[in-house]
Amino acid sequence: PEGTWCEYSIDGEWTERTAGGCFNFPSWRNNPQYEIVIGKDTNAFFLLMQPDPRMDKIRSIEKGGPEGGPIYDHKIGMYVMKGHELYRRKIMYDSEEIEGDDVLDSTPYIEYREVQCNTMDEEGEDRLKEGTRVVLCPSTFLPNKLGKFRIIVLTESALSQPPILLPPLRDLRCSGLWGAETAGGCRNFVSWRKNVQYQLKLSKPSRVSV
């Protein structure tokens, strides 16, 4: 019916693998990321929620939270970013992919039940255009904070693609040692060639973050 908003709900969890923390930490790339595609031009609300400790009958409730309420488990927040048809998962930081116009909105990081942002905070703010891909990246402020969360997306018109979880990154790691023969220093010094070097060979065109 006219005037009724469309609601989409996502239940997720920060696990040992996906609790990456905020953009202050390189591990933010491990956070769950969800993609939506806008149908008709629309305004939108984006809400991130964490469980209310008062609903847990087993644990004791600590007071002293915001406005006299309970103390919540985590500081939570979410970035709302412009997506890309090919490079769907966000991996770059401090670049045009994250900074500037590609961040559509973000919530503050607060130790609270719910944080939210929307496309109507500022006068004259544009609606999300038809066909726009949007990536939602929920996280705790610090990495390695485990827990469940829920995202609610409200739009004036139906999405052409409801929220889907984007595939996780492939994480490759190696360790080494700078010894007497391999501690060459940076490229300001001719000895840089002595440093240990690694070769990465891709099987197909890909984005790589090191």
From TrEMBL:
Tagged with keyword Hydrolase: yes
One Pfam family in the UniProt entry: Calpain_III
Peptidase C2 calpain domain boundaries: 4-161
SMART domains, sorted: calpain_III
GO biological process: one example: proteolysis
SUPFAM superfamilies named among the record's database cross-references: Calpain large subunit, middle domain (domain III)
Keyword tags: Hydrolase, Protease, Thiol protease
A Gene Ontology molecular function term of the record: calcium-dependent cysteine-type endopeptidase activity
PANTHER family, per database record: CALPAIN, CALPAIN-5
Family: Belongs to the peptidase C2 family.
Name the record gives this protein: Peptidase C2 calpain domain-containing protein
Organism: Strombidinopsis acuminata
